[in-house]
Amino acid sequence: MSAPAHFQAVTLDDDAWDDLLTFIEDKRVIPIIGPELLEVETDAGPRLLYDWLAEKLAAKLNVDTTLLPQPYTLNDVVCWFLSMRGRREEAYVRLRAILREAAFAPPRALRRLAAISDFNLFVTTTFDSMLEEALNAERFGGALANEAADVIAYAPNRVADLPCERDLLARPVVYHLFGKVAASPTYVISDEDTLEFICALQSDHLAPEKLFHELEHNHLLFIGSNFSNWLARLFLRMAKRQRLSDPRDVGEILADSHSGEDERLMGFLQQVSVRTRVYSGAEKFVDELYERWSARQQKIQGQSVRGLVAPQRFLPPAREMPDNAVFISYARDDIAAVQRIKAGLEAAGVTTWFDMDRLEPGDDYDRKIQRNISRCSYFIAVVSDSTQGRHEGYFRREWSYAIDRARNMADGALFILPVTIDGTLAGNALVPDKFLSLHFTALLGGEVTADFGARLREGMQARSAA
Q1: What is the CA radius of gyration of the chain?
Q2: Among 226, 260, 289, which residue terminates a domain?
Q3: Strands (DSSP E) along 89-198, which ranges?
């Protein structure tokens, strides 16, 4: 059985990346970090931390590694040691000492994630301190700084939760979901430990409710996880706290080296969890995310220099378009200006809607957009350098749907409203011929003029009274 086509792509398209970056800027994304991101520099060259720890722990506990499955894991070492009547506590103490003596520097991937300042809550399934060290280095100037990231560690015998809602966090938080390295057995180093933690996390009186509320209501990035088939399913279900096939406003991305190769997991996600996307390679995903986020920050700073100030944060549009709202069609690079248009029109008393939630393509999404265009009051087409540079894009399909609806309207009826946001000239615009016969309104940087807002408001009121 081959993996479903929906999951065979190893990259996200530009629209999906733009959506993801918008959600990150709105603090609606939580990264969940796994051991595949922990590549460290050892005497023998770069290695994954957990593989190196398995080797060192086996030597400390006198484990005969020739009797273990190859390549062996930390779990294999611990299980063999316990089967030989070793003391459980000794494994945790020895592992803590090994990690302390090694004093590895945080990997580049973690530092790049830490540098994305829109992330203020990180969840990690690893027990090391590298993520908080990366955060302290990137945001607070290193170990000697006066401030540092907050660190919270869960344990089945010591429930620790977020101190407040994520929007109110004073400093970035690293939450160790499977415990943090210690001298006591309060962190995960074996499959049995994982089972105990999963069971405790699902218990009513042991679950960190504030954390789970955030996981449930935000988009999730599972980066570098080592979850097996069924553990991945269970973890997704635990995070979302509802059937994965139920309609939901948020999705997740799995970025690792193995999920895309697991045909059964991919088949399950294709059928049950259509809001889950898969990206092949954890470090590659982090690199592309960081580079795109950095480029976007530079663009926003450039807009500020030119007088196009980035918009204030606002509540994103509703998942479903309100009746008779104004539909805004745009290219994803113009999201900042579109946010200003929405804020300006709604301040003028005009209900607007635009789509911010396209993390997944498909027929259902397309039908939703067609339906919304067929019942909106006006259709604003944002024309810009971004639309000029893209001969293909979903916004062009939206423009086509609007023209289809306009064909049923009387000559001169006002419905399609082309808007330029950056000085793009109407005569040079790469738009349908129908648009060229219409008046183009200039809303530079997305700033709504009083005349434009009043005209729309009066038009909508007239239609309601008719």
Answers
A1: 26
A2: 289
A3: 121-124, 150-153, 173-176
